[in-house]
Amino acid sequence: MTVTRGHPLAAEITDILVAHCGLDAEAAATAPAASLEELGLDSLALLELSAVVADRWRVQIPEQAAQLSIPAVADLVARRSEQPGHTENGIVIAAPLPLVWNITNDVANWTELFTEYAVVEILHREGDTVRFRLTMHPDENGVSWSWVSERTADPTAREVHAHRVETGPFEYMRIHWRYAEEPDGTRMTWVQDFAMKSTAPVDNAGMTDRINANSAIQLAVIKERIERRVQTGEVAAVGGATGAGDE
């Protein structure tokens, strides 16, 4: 069975609780928002639920599941059983690789490179590793999202590995930047691997779509801004930073 969010999976969880855990089906139907504890399920019943869920979906039910409703358990199973998020997006920038490397790894000036960041605060540097706080421009609801990330650059391999320290709605977020010389310039590629928390407002598939859409926008912006610097000769003033950030 394909695991989906919503009624079908909640109905399947209900069937498991009725068949294996002694749940009163009528009580569940009349109180859909009640927690498993409120529905009268004890620790032994939860152990049985955990065993069936682990066998069927390879998902572990946390000890605090007694405080969850059946729809919430279904949501947790759906999130934990789905494929982790993975995106890969790249663009060719008509500029030498060392120049693209220096500009895109100058985290302190990311507000001049990306359109989405309002503030960048460098928190710590050690060698080619930098920890920093990103704050975005306010969204349509006036909320300015902010988080801490850490990023380690490898100038020899022309790769950067980053992760969110403050994960927010993510279980984890890891980012790998790659740079490669091509006949037309430099290909910069972003690879992001992540998983969303069960409490996040969007699942892995939904966040994958969002990241793919936003990456295309930001990569195009970066390409345009770097190529404009090349055309105007401004790049002669760009320094050689070697440690920088993640989205």
Give a quick set of tags describing it.
alpha+beta; elongated; 27% strand; seven-stranded antiparallel sheet; 247 residues; 6 helices; disordered C terminus
Tell me what the structure shows.
- The protein has 247 residues and is α+β, with helices and mostly antiparallel strands.
- Helices cover 34% and strands 27% of the residues.
- Strands 1-7-6-5-4-3-2 form a seven-stranded antiparallel sheet.
- It is elongated, with a radius of gyration of 23 Å.
- The model is unreliable at 1-7 and 237-246 (pLDDT under 50).
Write the SSE topology:
Blueprint: H1 7-21, H2 25-30, H3 43-57, H4 70-81, E1 85-93, H5 97-104, E2 117-126, E3 129-136, E4 146-154, E5 159-164, E6 170-182, E7 185-196, H6 204-232
Antiparallel strand pairs: 1-7, 2-3, 3-4, 4-5, 5-6, 6-7
Helix pairs in contact: 1-3, 1-4
Task: Write a brief caption for the model.
The protein is α+β, with helices and mostly antiparallel strands. Helix content is 34%, strand content 27%. The chain is built from 6 helices and 7 strands.
> What percent of residues are in strands?
25-35%
Count of DSSP-assigned helices: 6
Q: In this structure, how is the largest beta sheet organized? A: 7 strands, antiparallel
Q: Averaged pLDDT, please?
A: 89
Strand order of the largest sheet: 1-7-6-5-4-3-2
Count the beta strands.
7
Shape: elongated
Estimated helix fraction:
25-40%
Oligomer: single chain
- H/E element order: HHHHEHEEEEEEH
What structural class do you assign from the helix and strand content?
alpha+beta
Spatial gap, N to C terminus = 35 Å
Indicate the radius of gyration in whole angstroms: 23 Å
Low-confidence stretches: 1-7, 237-246
